[in-house]
Amino acid sequence: MDISAESPVGGTIVTPARRRRKGAGAALTWMAVTPFAAWAVARVAGLERGSLPTQLMTATPYAAAGSLVPLLIAAIGRKRAATAVALLTTTALGFSVLPRALGGADATAGRPLRVLTINLLFGKADARHVVDLVRRLDPDVLSTQELTTGAVDELDALGLKTLMPHRVLQDEWNASGSGLYSKHPLQPLPELMPQIGHNMPAARISLPGGKPIEFVDVHPHPPMGPGLTTWHRALEALPPASEDAVRVLAGDFNASLDHAPLRRVLSRGYKDAADQVGAGLIPTWPANRRVPPIITIDHVLVDRRVGVKDVNVITVPGTDHRAVFATLTVP
Hints:
Layout: E1 3-6, E2 12-15, H1 17-45, H2 51-56, H3 60-66, H4 68-76, H5 80-97, H6 99-102, E3 111-119, H7 127-137, E4 141-145, H8 149-157, H9 160-163, E5 166-170, E6 178-182, E7 186-188, E8 202-205, E9 213-218, H10 227-237, E10 246-252, H11 260-267, E11 270-272, H12 273-276, E12 298-303, E13 307-314, E14 323-330
Parallel strand pairs: 3-4, 9-10
Antiparallel strand pairs: 1-2, 3-14, 4-6, 5-6, 7-8, 8-9, 10-12, 11-12, 13-14
Helix pairs in contact: 1-3, 1-4, 1-5, 3-5, 4-5
């Protein structure tokens, strides 16, 4: 209903006040809905481009939860078109995220394989805690990133040399160092993973009871600034699953399952161990900070033939990454 008034110079002034308020409400609703809708399109279609959007994509689980707010605003405001778009947005983000909390692993018989991976933060992780963790969890393989020469010496002095005598180490005095430790004999496979960014050693592990497995210690550069190109190249260079050998990729991927490059790695014959047992939303970084861990960038990826029994995420003093421990079965 319009509001009218007599003008002192004659005629009638008509003010469509309600339409103005209605238009303003619709605009505000679309302002709330549109960013989440754009996020959903980018996530589903893998359209993240540039350093900042790539980093922001790790927050998709929070965007999925936040998308309920504009859906509620649109529904309460009875904006049908906006409600429909908001509902599609929440559904798309939900289907992208929720399976990681639900799991769906099938019990698979086979040889046990226990994998522990941890980023040591320039070798500053509490070495005694790491060795105690190895004693308690008894992993077959320990995959380390940011392994410094000093950390190698300290870990061995505390008993790691006895617990895991076999190793393929590429330690450095900076973040590029990495190393594989094992209870079982290792054979280096330098041709399996080309040198792109940080050291990423690969090895064939003589796992008892059957054929050896192949293992890559993963640690691409973070997708920041000029490192974005190297990050893409490193993830693309990760070897696909093979019919000839069971492969495991474990480490600090600097990527979440919301990044298209990591999903492309999975499409080459892998599955995320944590995702399989409903632990895929447990954040791994940053740990031991005032800000609690908020994103999941440390992973154990396994050949689709490998069974996943359990995955635990463990805080280790001295490092900004939480360790990931996966209990697997290898056919």
